[in-house]
Design brief:
- The protein has 468 residues and is mainly alpha-helical.
- It has two domains: 207 residues, MFS general substrate transporter like domains (Growth Hormone, Chain: A); 210 residues, Up-down Bundle (Growth Hormone, Chain: A), CATH 1.20.1250.
- The protein is built from 16 helices and two strands.
- Helix 10 runs antiparallel to helix 16 and helix 11 packs antiparallel against helix 12.
């Protein structure tokens, strides 16, 4: 691949040189966005700020409920906007531009969380910033995922996707460790007094800087093609964009039902994966009596395991295909979930052993899902289809929570015990969602679209677009 702007030509990531595989800079630049985005995804949304903003002693007993409504509203916006904005980036040829804009907006909303003081009147400021940040983050992710086909080939897309997803896990844990030990812990490295929640609020500024620093490599390296900029089709406005979107969906249904079926199946099993993250800590704490600190330790170890497994599975993806990775991983997760359920009475050791074993398969499913879709998308439609990927995921995001709650109710009815004593039944609810997604996936045919950018002429000799 020839590049400009001072970058030397780089060889294909799959090329063997002296017995070693070399990963060129554009691939690392792309993957580092995953490492940096973990600041918002893991630290802010999952482990730190969401816990802070739902503290009933500060923000009221209904803070958790209001958080749920705020994120639900964000989910609706994402579902409506993602495919259209992704389609717009495809048509305009400005994928990197929109990745940059939305990433910078994530940085600004992250920094804005510093101003959410531990007083009830700041609740809605925190919720709005968190919800808006989620919208920007998901739209940025659509453009980021759409870049995968421009830095990979059909022979290495699995390894590159796995590298990015794995770095996302590892980056989140590195930053979470810094935040917990350096900012939030009463005996923090930096001696921060936690009066006025200063440790948590300063951690939000660190998250903003972290996201910015690790997103700059891909923004500065993988530039938009100037020749593709400014393309505008007749009738392209908001109404025209949705008209084009619905026409594209209808065309997919007529000509490429593999993609449609995969979008439906992946929406279900991805919600099951979301349930693993959402309710894993709840099950650990309530069913296996993990303390709050032990939950964090388990989360750190689990994410390290998931990150390493995802990077390793990416190479296997290229050899045997993404569908086999997804199917075998989902089967393993279902079996391990059943083992945890039936052996829960044996205590913490069961959750440590089989819970960590289950985490081995979560990342590979996520990464292989991305590569399965990358292989079937026609060139130039990556943003739109990955936008649909985000939309379908949001459309069924009620499945895992509902299945979890129904399983708890069934546990009460069958055993006659109190709700607090049947928390392990929630595992069955998550297993059911994963199993349904697996059943929907089995008939879907794995293939590589001959019109995919992964099969473009010269793809085997290039590792990505020019750094302009």
């Amino acid at each position: 691949m020839s590049t400009s702007g001072g970058h030397d030509a780089v060889e294909d990531p799959t090329t063997q040189g002296g017995g070693r595989q070399r990963t060129p800079w554009p691939v690392w630049a792309w993957a580092l966005w995953d490492w940096g985005s973990a600041a918002f995804n893991a630290v802010i949304t999952t482990f730190v700020f969401s816990v802070y903003i739902t503290d009933p002693d500060i923000f009221g007993d209904d803070a958790s409920s209001k958080l749920g409504w705020a994120l639900a509203g964000a989910g609706v916006l994402i579902a409506v906007l993602a495919p259209v904005l992704g389609q717009g980036a495809d048509r305009s040829g400005r994928r990197t531009f929109w990745l940059a804009i939305n990433t910078y907006l994530v940085v600004l909303t992250s920094a804005g969380l510093f101003f959410v003081r531990p007083e009830a009147q700041y609740l809605w400021l925190g919720l709005v910033l968190l919800a808006v940040g989620n919208v920007f983050f998901e739209i940025a992710s659509v453009n980021y995922n759409a870049m995968l086909n421009t830095i990979s080939t059909k022979d290495n897309v699995g390894r590159i996707s796995g590298l990015g997803w794995g770095l996302g896990y590892l980056g989140g844990i590195v930053l979470l460790t810094i935040v917990v030990v350096g900012f939030v812990n009463p005996d923090s490295w930096f001696g921060i007094e936690n009066d006025d929640a200063l440790g948590v609020r300063l951690a939000m500024l660190l998250c903003a800087v972290w996201t910015l620093v690790f997103s700059l490599p891909v923004i500065r390296t993988i530039r938009d093609d100037p020749a593709a900029r400014g393309r505008r089709e007749p009738g392209a406005g908001v109404v025209g964009a949705y008209r084009l979107l619905f026409a594209s969906i209808a065309r997919l249904w007529r000509t490429d039902r593999t993609t449609v079926y995969f979008l439906a199946a992946s929406a279900v099993f991805r919600d099951g994966l979301a349930g693993v993250f959402t309710f894993g800590a709840v099950i650990a704490a309530r069913a296996f009596d993990f303390s709050d600190s032990l939950v964090i330790v388990f989360a750190i170890v689990a994410n390290v395991v998931a990150g390493i497994a995802t990077i390793a599975a990416g190479r296997l993806d290229d050899r045997i295909g993404p569908k086999r990775i997804i199917v075998s991983s989902l089967v393993s997760m279902c079996l391990l979930g059943l083992v945890i359920f039936f052996l829960h009475a044996q205590g913490k050791v069961i959750f440590w052993v089989f819970g960590l074993a289950l985490c081995i398969f979560v990342g590979p499913v996520q990464s292989a899902s991305r590569t399965f879709l990358a292989r079937v998308i026609p060139a130039g439609q990556e943003g739109q289809v990955f936008g649909l990927y985000a939309t379908t995921g949001r459309a069924v995001s009620f499945l895992a929570p509902a299945s979890f709650s129904i399983a708890l109710w069934c546990g009460q009815q069958i055993t006659g015990e109190r709700l607090r004593d049947v928390q392990h039944w929630g595992i069955l609810g998550i297993v059911v969602v994963l199993a349904v997604g697996l059943a929907l996936l089995v008939p879907v045919r794995q293939r590589v679209n001959p019109d995919s950018a992964l099969t473009r002429p010269g793809a085997a000799e290039s590792s990505g677009p020019a750094a302009r």
